Amino acid sequence: MVILLNCAHHLSQRLQTTFVNYGEATMYSLETCPSPWLRSHSVWGRYTVSFLLIITQLGFCSVYFMFMADNLQQIVEEVHVTSNTCQPRKFLVLTPILDIRIYMLTILPFLIMLVFIRNLKVLSVFSTMANITTLGSMILIFEYIIQDIPDPSNLPLMANWKTFLLFFGTAIFTFEGVGMVLPLKNQMKNPQHFPLVLYVGMSLVIFLYSCLGILGYMKFGSDTQASITLNLPNCWLYQSVKLMYSVGIFFTYALQFHVPAEIIIPFAVSQVSQPSSSPAWTWSSP
Questions:
Q1: Cα–Cα distance between 278 and 189 in angstroms, integer?
Q2: Which residue in 36, 68, 124, 211 is deepest, having the highest Cβ count within 10 Å?
Q3: Of 205, 196, 200, 136, residue with least CA distance to 177
């Protein structure tokens, strides 16, 4: 990550421009490499990186969409069995009242309106709100999992090898914000301070991921679910955790969608012929 930032910073200085995205950084880097073949095909490096960014970010957005719909479905359909007393969760087999796609269609119009916001400064307001709701939900999660932790000596140190793919997918998903690193750096008032911001932010995230994973496993053992929110008691207090997480993810959706939109929309607009009397549509980073 640091190498990439330094490379982008060097290229922006050399080209005398304030903004270098991932595709441009790859293309300009290949233009200076020793291999003649890579130099002559440097533009394909840009296309490859842009394509992979689109797939990655849209994949993250799809997971977000499913997560919000799934949590909304659980909250709505467990209302009649939710109590005020927070006891260890009893897993109930409930027959879905509505198909999960109905909940997705309910959320979709609000997401469409949200992703029309292009200005990163405006999106930072939503990101701050998301951080607040996420922090509140994590406080409640930690408050619960640190209580009455059973003796962890009987827990296996490693899971079955069949769960490796799940671990790999989860680990990759933690890199969901990598596509926003350069855009956020380029929008900072003092970009030279970004490495410090990155170090502090990544250190905090690693600490929280480690603590949540270790304490969650010690608390629930082999019964740990794919999302730890599914292990929380079925009471109103901890049902609010799902709601706060869903709200937080909703507010950050536009931020994650900004990266593929920034790549796709200019290309799509360039393919549409414009009448000579009409002003050309442009898409530029705010």
A1: 35
A2: 68
A3: 205
For 28, the 3-state DSSP assignment is: helix
CA–CA separation, 30 vs 147, rounded Å?
54
Give the separation between CA 137 and CA 241, rounded to whole angstroms.
5
251-278 per-position pLDDT tens digit: 888 878 888 888 888 878 887 765 555 4
- The letter for the amino acid at 207 is F
The whole-model pTM stands at 0.71
- Beta-carbon contacts of 123 under 8 Å, excluding residues fewer than 6 positions away, are 117, 254, 255, 258
Structure tokens at 218: 């010690």
Selection from 275, 246, 207 nearest residue 63 by Cα: 246
Q: What distance in Å separates the CA atoms of residue 65 and residue 100, rounded to the nearest whole number?
A: 11
Report CA-CA distances (Å) from 164 to 87, 138, 160, 168, 169: 32, 26, 8, 6, 9
Q: What is the pLDDT of residues 207-246, one digit of tens each?
A: 888 898 889 888 888 777 777 877 888 788 888 888 888 8
